[in-house]
């Protein structure tokens, strides 16, 4: 072995050691630099004393002692490092990752600026929030979500064909929201305002999985993304609320009432920008914050199960029929959505290879009790469906959603049962849920596009 | 004979500040110097030295700068500050008190030797 070879091998060993050190959260890149210099000093001395480079390396590493102990000592001095910091540009220390995160930041800022601009553009044509509230209600997601989709598509380096599809779908959404002659107070306006965001959110999902359309893992990632995005959005909304309150009250104290500024600028611009910023935060900070949606699911699954079970017992005990008045169906739809959410987000965090445990049984109990309640509701409705229900877009949409969720949960319950009895693999459940996403999209688009003409724009 | 861990830890700060008061230095050299001064009796580890240096820096007793040595290799040098010198003087006063007291107690005594056979007799 020549001296040149020995030197190269030594460098490779240093590099390997460095990677090993950097895996510790307590040790930052500049600590690694300092320790590496120390190690090199030690190696140089041993080589000077007559050892070969790789012998010297081994001895020097051994002298430094175990990394566990070293990082424990570092952690005592730098306890803040054990808390991952949410900073604007991740300080990863590697120049490639740095430029990448900085480019992401700029892309996010431009998309957020675009979203803010588009929410204010209609104002140039004389539309304002008070008089044209129905226009804004129908179009609100159209101001923000295309920009989020643009950011995600940019980040995924989406192909042109994908971008064309995204543009076409958003254009279709704009047509659906604005082309039909709907009266401001009509039911169809409300139904469209609720379903268009769902349809468009799944278009954002297309942008999210742009790099691999068919992969169910990518779809599961999108479900995770949705949960975390929502949580970031809620947090930002809380912060925004505090900001507005302070702004309002401090200015009021000096005799200026900034109501117009807050309701016309701060709220709409902040909300649309937050949609994009939340997406960026989830993308950039995937590992910074422990995924919180699954944690919430763990907390609330037992509580919801208990609540639903108590409700079922009460229904049987009092033999009191469920009062299916106007809003009841929507309430029970929401209940199914919550149960589905609990199911989805515990799926998303579960190790697919782990054997069935008590939590899976708990989930089965949750899904079955939700199904039982829903069947009771549907039985109550069927009696009146011809005369009362299904005659308005509101009720038809609510009923359709109920059926869709019922089918999903019924099959999920079956899959959970077979999984608990070890007949199927857990992935079957994952595949069923991710494969079902297009059904929601299809239904939302049908409601938005077909319902208004079908119910003659009432 | 190795010096006990507690004693090493207690004397660490004045030791490092004292070495840096001689001239600016870097981690590896500081460790060498301590080894040399104690004839190898003081058992210092990297896990003791570097976090200590970082703490002293946070407290403002030392300041650091990265300097490049041969090629791409960077080295972090530490230099004592005025605040560090004041701290060193204070610690030195305390250590002198301790050492004087110990000397007083041990004054004129023959060094203790333990003879296990004597103890048995």
UniProtKB/TrEMBL annotation, chain A:
Domain of life, per lineage: Bacteria
Record has Signal as a keyword: no
Transmembrane segments: 105-129, 135-154, 161-183, 189-209, 229-249, 261-283, 295-317, 329-347, 359-379, 399-417, 437-455
Keywords in alphabetical order: Membrane, Transmembrane, Transmembrane helix
Name of the protein in its database record: DUF4153 domain-containing protein
Organism, scientific name: Micromonospora deserti
UniProtKB/TrEMBL annotation, chain B:
Domain Transcription regulator PadR N-terminal: 16-90
Classification via Pfam families: PadR
InterPro entries per UniProt: Metal_resp_DNA-bind_regulator, Tscrpt_reg_PadR_N, WH-like_DNA-bd_sf, WH_DNA-bd_sf
PANTHER family assigned to the protein according to its UniProt record, in alphabetical order: PADR-FAMILY TRANSCRIPTIONAL REGULATOR (PTHR33169), TRANSCRIPTIONAL REGULATOR RV3488 (PTHR33169:SF14)
Protein name: PadR family transcriptional regulator
Native source organism of the sequence: Micromonospora deserti
